[in-house]
TrEMBL record:
Species annotation: Bacillus carboniphilus
UniProt keyword list: DNA-binding, Transcription, Transcription regulation
Matching SUPFAM superfamilies: C-terminal effector domain of the bipartite response regulators
Regions crossing the membrane: none
Listed PROSITE patterns: HTH_LUXR_2 (PS50043)
Residues annotated as domain HTH luxR-type: 139-204
Name the UniProt record assigns to this protein: Response regulator transcription factor
Amino acid sequence: MTNISLLSEPSLHRTWTVKVLTKNLKHCSITAVDTSNKVQLFKEIVDVVIVDLETTDNHSDLIDFYIAQNKKVIVTSDMTNPELLDCFGKRLHGYFYKLMNNTEQLEAISMILEGKRYIHPLLSSVLLDGYIDLKSNKGTRPKNLLTKQEWLVLELLAKGHNNQDIGDQLHISERTAKNHVYSILKKLKVTNRTSAALLSIKNRWVNI
């Protein structure tokens, strides 16, 4: 059974969406969570989370949490929400248009459950422009935070490479790569590779 949770404010649209998804996705359990109770999503076992960006709360903490857990994350937005481009930089599984109909939503969720990604056509041009901007402009890297070699290691780490891959690409030993990673985690004040990668991507210190 695949557990899907919708994080949004109560509304007739949300109620209808849950009803339609429950009827058509027989192998899925569909639940809806109010933004005031989103803390429960940090505790429950959820395979897919659909986050409504139109709510007043900022949900980057929840989105980052599910990314780190290798879960599927979908956001719902209109074309003007400022959070949309930040979410695009996180390479989520789905970007839904706020007013997409239930048929489109069902098809999109089915694609995502099959391991594909989905971007609604009305959001694609907005996201493409933002993607070009993200790729062509790195954020300012803090001076004296990491060495030149450590920045290279962090960039490869953020792309998902293990220590052996990093060593091979930078022509250093696996042990040296491991030592660099340890130093990076200590300097960034994070406890694991995933947190280091998320921090570097969020601050646009690396291009992925």
